[in-house]
Design a protein that fits this description.
This protein is α/β, with parallel strands linked by helices. Helix content is 39%, strand content 14%. It has 15 helices and 13 strands. It has a seven-stranded mixed β-sheet with strand order 2-8-7-6-5-3-4, sandwiched between helices. It has a four-stranded antiparallel β-sheet with strand order 9-10-13-12, with helices on one face. A two-stranded parallel sheet has the order 1-11. α7 links the parallel β3 and β4. The longest helix has 24 residues. It is globular. The termini are far apart. The protein binds pyridoxal-5'-phosphate. The site of pyridoxal-5'-phosphate (PLP) has 14 residues, from α6. The site of pyridoxal-5'-phosphate has 14 residues, from α6.
Length: 380
């Protein structure tokens, strides 16, 4: 009798995938080390938390949890439509923007087609693409010495588009690098991409990135029918645990996405919270301002220790620690600080650090200062 081998039963495309590696949960480190004072700066969550209005909306919706959510997301779409100035027919809601990215891959890719993305791009893109059996084409990132080190090389990405390319992914700003494209450069790129290829501009960090001059690509949708802008409630809106995101696109693209979308992909609490969160401009502004200011505190603090950081327009920084990045990550864990190792992104010398609240950032910098002093050469 032969052993049961699930992998041999899976599609060849799935067989070849490696699972996404999330940030280490606080509860897991607490169990491992018996610590109770843990800071997680590993998943780009908004340390300020959600709007109190979002919490109240969820509490009000709780007794209705036995009812299926509104599968059309009517009320949230109406709010988004007003806020963004787009027709509701252009919106596709998702169980997090990750869901929307997967819907794009399911609807537009198949074996024999291609999708283009950058080296050091968000890890979900290659997984979503390759699960469909399509070919993922990874374009080398800009050099470490470039003005936007490790950023997307949009010219090279454009040149890689073939008649078989259906999707090209641009995270603006990108995660895990924090890098972004100028509005001019991005517009030239979108305009030049042939219309048989959808340009997915992932604006997961848009609210933080405005301060760095990042373009709101939603403004370009009327001019470019092949443009798809993806946003999330997980980052600046502080609702990562709920899973809420959306795409804004040509209505024809939204129609295709809705054909593969699960009918109730956004849950009742997420719908209620997202709609309420959109109304709290003050909370959004305060938490974004704090994160942008504190990112500069981290950048300056790291710089003062001789640690190079990649320019970031997000609520995180990618810091270069050289060959000891792994040791520093482990030492930080011992001190109850969780950051994100990015070796799985091909960046074994870097750690990605999410901006926390001021005392958390101060604690991180203090611990790092001690670690680097006791492990000389760590930054080289
Ligand atoms: C965090 C992130 C997302 C959002 O993921 P959700 O599924 O909405 O939580 C999307 N794209 C990038 C680049 C991200 O960093």
């Amino acid at each position: 009798m032969s052993a049961f081998d699930a992998a041999s039963l899976a599609s060849a495309a799935v067989h070849g995938l490696a699972p996404y590696v999330p940030g280490k949960p606080v509860a897991e480190l607490a169990r491992e080390l018996g610590l109770d004072d843990i800071v997680k700066l590993a998943s780009n969550e908004n340390a300020s938390g959600p709007s109190p209005r979002a919490i109240a909306a969820m509490q009000a919706a709780l007794p209705d949890a036995w009812i299926y959510p509104d599968g059309s997301g009517h009320d949230l779409k109406r709010s988004l439509s007003r806020r963004l100035g787009v027709d509701p027919a252009r919106l596709t809601l998702g169980n997090g923007s990750n869901d929307v990215l997967v819907l794009l891959a399911e609807a537009f890719l198949a074996p024999g087609t291609e999708a283009v993305y950058s080296q050091y791009c968000f890890a979900v893109y290659p997984i979503a693409v390759r699960a469909t059996g399509a070919h993922g084409v990874e374009i080398p990132a800009l050099a470490r010495t470039h003005a936007m080190p490790l950023g997307h090389d949009l010219s090279a990405m454009l040149a890689a588009i073939t008649p078989r390319t259906r999707l090209v992914f641009v995270a603006n700003p990108n995660n895990p690098t924090g890098t972004w494209a100028s509005a001019d450069e991005l517009r030239r790129f979108v305009a030049a991409v042939p219309r048989h290829t959808l340009v997915i501009v992932d604006e997961a960090y848009f609210e933080y990135a405005v301060a760095s001059g990042c373009q709101n690509a939603i403004e370009w949708l009327d001019a470019y029918p092949h443009l798809v802008v993806v946003r999330t409630f997980s980052k600046a809106y502080g609702l990562a645990g709920l899973r809420a995101g959306f795409a804004v696109s040509h209505a024809g693209v939204a129609d295709m996405l809705n054909r593969v979308r699960q009918p109730f992909n956004m849950n009742l609490l997420a719908l209620a919270a997202a709609e309420a969160a959109l109304e709290d401009d003050e909370h959004l502004r305060r938490s974004v301002d704090l994160a942008v200011r504190e990112r500069q505190v981290l950048e300056r603090g790291l710089g003062a220790m001789g640690v190079r950081t990649i320019p970031s327009a997000g609520n995180f920084v990618l810091a270069e620690f050289g060959a000891r990045a792994g040791d520093i990550d482990r030492a930080l864990l011992q001190q109850g600080i969780i950051v994100r190792p990015v070796a799985n992104y091909g960046l074994p010398n870097h750690l990605r650090i999410t901006v926390g609240l001021p005392p958390q950032n101060a604690r991180l910098l203090e611990v790092l200062r001690h670690l680097l002093a006791s492990t000389p050469g760590a930054q080289s």
